[in-house]
């Protein structure tokens, strides 16, 4: 397996260290996130981030390939003292950016989303679900589509707080796709609040925006 350094540890989520190599790429070096490698394991090389307590009324659920969304998730979870559930896949995306793009394009063209390898906790106790994802090809990334197809109906009655990272082109039509997939899944009585959207190389300096959005 290809190994890449994802840079320094920038935080922790559910006790696991968070690395996010995009934040070392400021200015022209960033190139809108293009060519950003991952650890080839969808950031699970340090173990799956999961914290389920009896008392929390809020949970952060997220997927991240190269750590930017995971870093944002860690900030939200720590600020709001939320429980945490990382979305994980049977076959992680390749460390190589171009190989990832090829696979993602194929999945989008065929509609065959990746298989999940995770156990969603019972969400009954949670009022708010912070749902974290990234924009791929100006739409919702394939793993989040897979999550909503499998578990969208579990979000019935929840206040959904969407947070997103991108390569600088914004959130695209992610929220429309999210609404469609929730509807198809049979989810009812949920609300989708204003999204928090941050460029992938700016998550390390987004604390004020995160705090304002959480408030
Ligand atoms: C396959 C692929 C497609 C992408 N497409 C877009 C895009 O259309 N617009 C955009 O702004 N960023 C795009 N990006 C950049 C990611 O949204 C950005 O790097 C994000 O912060 C990655 O989050 P992560 O580190 O949590 O995986 C793309 C990245 C990948 C891997």
Automatic annotation (TrEMBL):
Q: Which domain of life is it from?
A: Bacteria
Q: Region entry Disordered: which residue ranges?
A: 1-47
Feature: compositional bias, Polar residues: 38-47
Any one GO molecular function term: FMN binding
| Ranges for domain Flavodoxin-like | 58-215
SUPFAM superfamilies under this entry?
Answer: Flavoproteins (SSF52218)
Pfam families in alphabetical order: Flavodoxin_4 (PF12682)
What is the protein's name according to its record?
Flavodoxin
């Amino acid at each position: 397996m290809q190994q890449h350094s994802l840079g320094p540890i920038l935080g922790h989520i559910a006790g696991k260290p968070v690395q996010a190599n995009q934040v070392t790429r400021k200015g022209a070096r960033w190139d809108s996130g293009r060519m950003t490698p991952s650890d080839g394991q969808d950031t699970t090389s340090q173990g799956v981030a999961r914290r389920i307590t009896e008392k929390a009324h809020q949970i952060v659920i997220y997927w991240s390939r190269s750590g930017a969304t995971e870093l944002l998730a860690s900030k939200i979870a720590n600020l709001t003292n939320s429980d945490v559930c990382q979305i994980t896949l049977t076959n992680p995306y390749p460390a190589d950016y171009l190989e990832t793009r090829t696979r993602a394009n194929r999945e989008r063209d065929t509609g065959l989303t990746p298989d999940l390898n995770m156990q969603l906790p019972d969400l009954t106790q949670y009022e708010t679900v912070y749902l974290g994802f990234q924009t791929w090809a100006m739409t919702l990334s394939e793993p989040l589509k897979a999550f909503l197809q499998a578990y969208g109906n579990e979000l019935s009655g929840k206040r959904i707080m969407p947070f997103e990272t991108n390569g600088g082109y914004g959130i695209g039509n992610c929220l429309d796709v999210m609404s469609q997939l929730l509807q198809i899944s049979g989810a009812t009585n949920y609300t989708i609040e204003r999204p928090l959207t941050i460029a992938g190389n700016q998550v390390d300096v987004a604390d004020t925006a995160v705090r304002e959005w959480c408030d």
